[in-house]
Amino acid sequence: MKKISVVIASLILMLIINGCGTKVTKEEVVSGAVKKSLNSFETDMKTEFKISSNGQDISSTTDIALVYKDDPFITHMKMSMIEGEIELYIDKESAYMKMPGEEGWIQAPTGSIPEFEEMASGDSIKKDLEMINEFSELFSFEQKDGGYVLDVKLDENSSDKEKELVTSVLTEEMQNQSIKVSKVNKFNYSYTIDKDYNLKNVLTEADLEVVMDGQTTQISIKADADYKNINSVKDFSIPAEVTDNVIEMDLES
Question: pTM value?
């Protein structure tokens, strides 16, 4: 019995010592995540939008499945909406999009569409992670389930700096540079990062009043993105059935 007690005591002591050795700070996690190479990944994302303006409500729910590789750059995305499914392939030279109900694929130069050009340069991925660094003092931090959670929870008492974070997130989410946040009813924003500093999840929940293009608008958002197969996506290419069934896009119309 005494021998068993000694073994148990030794195991407990090892757990305590190892636990102390693995504790990290928020600054270390933020730095590790920002510096981490993100060469490829897959994302499953669900977004829910509701916009109210001038007595009109517009609601949208979208499921997105995305596969990304940066060398050579190629992305495949499917967006499922009430109207149907949009499918998209992008490489450095061209973007191919298939709209609901269409047989062929619309083609346009990647550089002609700012959002696609940003994605091809890798800037959109970097911006998400650099946002943690820029506003790190606003994030709370905890170790959880073998990884780390960085999150911000805001309400109507938000400071100007906190509203600046909300504006940055909205600008990135909605691709609109003219958004100004006038009131924050609720804003929950969190990053989940694994023990190797890989991004695992980004969750955004917001209920806001904003001025957008000069118009006061109520916006409700929930966006939940899971990241997987980090730096493990196999090579793929744009299928011939896409490139052989192209409808040229008239960018002048």
Answer: 0.81
